[in-house]
Design goal:
The complex is a heterodimer. Chain A is built from five helices and 22 strands. Chain A is mainly beta. Chain A has two domains: 166 residues, no CATH class; 175 residues, no CATH class. At the A-B interface, β9, β11 and β12 of A face β17, β21, β22, β30 and β31 of B.
């Protein structure tokens, strides 16, 4: 990297740290800058090859866009967001933006539907086992509220551990806390080699009944609140289903500080104490949401948590374009005139990198 | 047959003693791999290193991997599949995993694991010598000969009548070595039976847990070779081999809320090889060699929960059949080698899983590689032209047509000069290539239980390289030889799993193969050999290797830059022979956060002839107990620590290469 480039990078980082709101200059010789005005409602689309705003006629089927912005959400052209082969990984250190080649990352993640339960487990990559974080989740349907905790993902069958066999505890919340119910729910969906449309267990919290529903059926049904499918847990709201169910992770703010070793060390009785201590008041002020589309740019990741006004995180993301052939490094240097519903005008920097 | 053959051998032990007389300072075996014509190693136009059977035994080797593990210019990497510790692929000039061609008597060995041919699976019981040609050799051998070629050449009986050989050793970790062969030869015909069986107990990874760092290992070989010369112009030979390997590994996992579960990891493979060869001397100057070969490998790799009906196994069947015709024509100072080869490969792989579905125990089978045929036809030509008595030029080229990738052409030009008896200089440049394997094209490998899947890519193209090699040898006197050499390789379009584009879905990441890597390798070597009559022989060799992954702008993983190898053989009083071998390997880049530590190994062996045909030996490998750290990714140190061994070998009449 040239000396000039290093100077510009330092200036760019300083600008980010100071929260300056004017248009940033190029952060690096190979970086192109683009200003993206995000409206309070609706979605805007960006093409990265020659960074520009685009207006695809049929965004869900189009490969003409690589990133999209709506409110404080960022989407890649993949999964439920688009038909492309887009994906992303982040956060990477801001200095990664200097690289001319694709940085080593463990994977690229396409967009997926998820919500409060998205990170309910910690993954032990050495032993390929999922450990519950023992968070307590609130699930709301109309004026009814429940608390749920995942106890275990495994059950023994034929002297072998079987994954996807959830054990949960839940209780209704109101003026008083209802009796704790413990349920075992079959989320195996036919096992690892099961069919894509194999049914899995969906729970109706009011009646405590579990129905085995295929994903397509569940998306059209109002008769469940929480569905368990392999390692994914969804709620019946927004893109998850028509039930208007919302959920929230009561310990979401603790997630970043949690370690695998700490999670593995947490005993079941400590988890029970945590569950029992939750009342209706614990959820005061919490925002319940149904399932929505989640990308590598999660709201809590690309926007500095607690910043007021909102600021973009000082980080770099690796983005694969809609065709799945070209990688880009992306960073954000400023939000101009952000509001509660929109980051305003985003100043972003993009550069193509070699494979 | 073995016992019968051994019963009449004592009288020929003297001949064996003669055969074991010390070699000159420069190994001057006859080699064939570099040019497909017999040449003395010292005078060969293409530099060819040789490890004889006697040398391999001095190194304490029971298989080809062990014989080459301390060979200068070569790295036998125990870490490629370190969690099982079984596959031992070779690395030459910085290339491995499908980029070094492994031959047995000139025919490619199949049955790779992720591109790695396991050299530990080839015992040395019937070995004559191992020839190592470094640098691109695709002009003669086609695909995979980018880094070099290793040719394992079997031995024919040297004397008429019954002959044979037996070797038994007991080693640390309950290692047992039983190798032997028996032969009968008469004028114009011979037959030979080869048997080998080696075993070793499992080595635990963590004390107190059942997990194995190295699985319990059993390797065996049954081989039969016959040769006949019905008339002075024709000879025919048939080689049949069955190699069986079994590994029994164990791992255990703690599941939250349930406890620890043990998983058995049995792995088994059977390789069968049939090779028919006919040599026809059409005239004094013109010879025709016809080769017909078939090989097939059945492999199963299981993952079974202990005391449970639940589990899965990967089953694969790989086969190759080939026909090759080679004409060798001598025309005064010119020798032509012209040949054609047709090859057909087939690979199937499936996953068989036993699981309970809807209350019923079911066995399901999923194709991991669709039955896939790869056919190719090749023609090659090479001219060895002695322009002057001291100067030979060797141009050559090979063209291959592959049903799936189209055509590839690989030229080579080599020049050798020997201005006098003291000096030899060689230089060569050539092209190497590697065609995509069936796995790389059509894999559907589901290792979801380990968090990943690998998908093939039918759009892959062949990898291509250019390489230059040069060396000079100086023998000022019969007791000393100095050697120096260097090489450089440029490889484009390398196929690799694109880890940067792995797609995550839940806890499973899916990867695919791509032609995207570009690699440069360069190196230099210096060597010195000293010989004092029959009493002492000493060799010292230094190798330097530089590698560069162009895209990532970093070295290739697991390539040590500096290697120093020293060996000494001393004949002492009471017919004792002491052999010492030491290897110092520098640390190696693994990734931006990790380096494999440098290490040294010291081997020693003391042997003595007990009576005319019987020899006893005691030895130690890896004297200082340097050992790989279990779980440390990319650790190149030996997986086994110190190994002590004691053995007897019944020495049979000398053997020579056919």
């Amino acid at each position: 990297m040239s000396g000039l480039g290093q100077c510009l990078l330092v200036l760019g980082v300083a600008c980010l740290a100071l929260g300056c709101s004017s248009t940033a200059g190029p952060v690096h010789d190979g970086t192109r800058e683009l200003e993206v005005a995000v409206p309070d409602t609706g979605r805007v689309y960006v093409q990265l090859a020659e960074p520009a705003l685009v207006t695809p006629s049929a965004p869900r089927e189009s490969n003409d866009w690589d990133l999209a912005f709506e409110n404080y959400d960022v989407f890649t052209n993949s999964g439920p967001s688009g038909a492309g082969r887009g994906a992303a990984f982040g956060q990477l250190d801001l200095s990664t933006l200097q690289d001319d080649t694709t940085p080593e990352v463990p994977f690229l993640a396409p967009d997926k539907a998820g919500g409060a339960f998205l990170d309910w487990y910690a993954y032990d990559g050495k032993n390929h086992a999922l450990f519950s974080r023992f968070h307590v989740y609130g699930v709301q349907r109309g004026d009814r509220l429940w608390k749920i905790q995942i106890s275990s993902y495994y059950a023994e069958q034929d002297n072998a551990p079987l994954s996807g066999r959830y054990r949960i505890r839940y209780a209704a919340l109101g003026d008083s806390v209802g009796a704790t119910q413990i349920l075992q729910i079959d989320g195996t969906a036919g096992g690892i080699s099961g069919a894509v449309g194999a049914p899995s267990g969906c729970l109706d919290l009011e009646s405590g009944t579990v129905s085995m529903l295929a994903p397509a059926v569940a998306r059209e049904s109002q008769d469940w609140d929480v569905c368990f499918r392999r390692d994914s847990i969804s709620v019946n709201g927004e893109v998850g289903g028509p039930g208007g169910v919302g959920a929230v992770d009561l310990q979401a703010s603790e997630r970043a500080a949690e370690t695998l070793a700490g999670i593995q060390a947490e005993a079941e009785d400590e988890a029970l104490v945590r569950f029992d201590s939750v009342t209706q008041a614990s959820f005061d002020g919490k925002q319940f949401r149904g399932d929505h589309v989640v990308s590598a740019f999660e709201t809590g990741a690309w926007v500095v948590a607690g910043s007021n006004p909102e600021e973009p995180a000082q980080a770099t993301w690796l983005v694969q374009d809609a065709a799945g052939t070209q990688n880009f490094l992306i960073a954000f240097s400023a939000f101009r005139e952000p509001s509660t519903s929109s980051p305003g005008t985003i100043v972003m920097h993009a550069k193509p990198v070699k494979q | 047959m073995l016992l019968l053959a051994l019963s009449g051998l004592g009288r020929r032990a003297r001949a064996q003693n003669d055969a074991r007389a010390p070699a000159p300072a420069v190994v001057n075996e006859v080699v064939v791999t570099g040019t497909r014509t017999p040449e003395q190693a010292q005078r060969a136009v293409v530099k060819t290193d040789v490890v004889t059977r006697a040398e391999a035994e001095r190194r304490g080797a029971t298989n080809v991997a062990e014989a080459l593990s301390t060979q200068p210019g070569v790295q036998v990497n125990p870490g490629a599949y370190g969690y099982l510790g079984t596959v031992s692929p070779i690395q030459i000039q910085g290339f491995d995993l499908g980029r070094v061609l492994i031959l047995e008597d000139g025919e490619p060995v199949i049955g790779d694991v992720g591109g790695a041919i396991d050299l530990a699976g080839i015992p040395i019981g019937d070995l004559s010598r191992i020839e190592i040609v470094t640098g691109p050799s695709s002009a003669l051998y086609g695909s995979s000969a980018i880094g070099g070629v290793v040719n394992v050449v079997s031995a024919a009986p040297a004397v008429e009548g019954p002959s044979g050989q037996a070797r038994t050793e007991y080693r640390s970790h309950q290692g047992v070595v039983l190798q032997g062969n028996a032969a009968y030869r008469k004028p114009g015909a011979w037959a030979k039976l080869d048997l080998s069986r080696t075993s070793q107990a499992a080595i635990a990874e963590i004390r107190g847990l059942p997990d194995t760092q190295i699985p319990q290992t059993l390797r065996s070989l049954v081989g039969m070779r016959v040769f006949a010369q019905p008339n002075p112009k024709i000879d025919v030979s048939l080689r049949a081999r069955w190699l069986h390997q079994r590994f029994d590994g164990v791992e255990s996992t703690e599941y939250p809320g349930l406890g620890r579960y043990v998983t058995d990891l049995p792995q088994e493979s059977d390789r069968f090889a049939l090779h028919f060869l006919e040599n026809i001397r059409l005239t004094r100057q013109l010879g025709l060699r016809l080769s017909l070969a078939r090989q097939w490998v059945d492999t199963s790799s299981g993952n079974f929960r202990r005391d449970s009906p639940i589990g899965q196994a990967h089953l694969s069947t790989q086969s190759i059949q080939s026909f090759e015709a080679t004409v060798t024509a001598a025309d005064g100072p010119r020798t032509w080698v012209i040949g054609t080869r047709f090859e057909s490969q087939r690979l199937t792989q499936e996953l068989q899983s036993r699981e309970r579905i809807d209350g019923e125990l079911l066995t399901r089978t999923t194709a991991e590689v669709s039955p896939r045929g790869l056919n190719s036809a090749a023609s090659y030509a090479q001219l060895a032209w002695k322009l002057r008595p001291w100067l030979t030029v060797l141009p050559g080229a090979r063209g291959e047509y592959h049903g799936r990738y189209g055509s590839v052409i690989a030229p080579r030009l080599a020049v050798a000069a020997r201005p006098n008896d003291a000096w030899t200089a060689r230089i060569g440049a050539g092209r190497g290539f590697r065609t995509p394997s069936a796995e790389e094209l059509g894999f559907n490998f589901d290792h979801s239980i380990y968090g990943y899947r690998v998908r093939g890519n039918p759009a892959l193209e062949a990898e291509r390289s250019w390489g230059v090699n040069a060396d000079v040898a100086f023998t000022p006197a019969a007791f000393s030889t100095f050697r120096a050499g260097g090489f450089a390789n440029w490889v484009n379009n390398l196929i690799d799993i694109d880890l940067a584009s792995g797609m995550r879905s839940g806890t499973v990441v899916t990867y695919s193969y791509k032609n995207f890597q570009r690699v440069r390798t360069m190196g230099a070597n210096l060597g010195l050999s000293l010989q004092d009559g029959a009493r002492l022989r000493a060799d010292l060799s230094y190798d330097y290797l530089w590698t560069h992954d162009v895209l990532a702008d970093q070295p290739l993983s697991g390539r040590p830059a500096h290697t120093l190898t020293a060996a000494a053989r001393l004949s002492m009083v009471w017919q004792l022979e002491l052999y010492l071998r030491a290897r110092f390997v520098s640390g190696a880049f693994v990734d931006s956060m990790t380096r494999s530590p440098g290490y040294e190994t010291v081997d020693a062996r003391l042997s003595r002839r007990l009576w005319s045909a019987l020899q006893a030996c005691v030895g130690v490998l890896n004297l200082f107990d340097i050992q790989q750290n279990p779980g440390q990714i990319g650790d190149l140190r030996p997986p086994l620590g110190r190994v002590l061994y004691i053995g007897l070998s019944l020495l049979l009449p000398g053997e020579e290469t056919p």
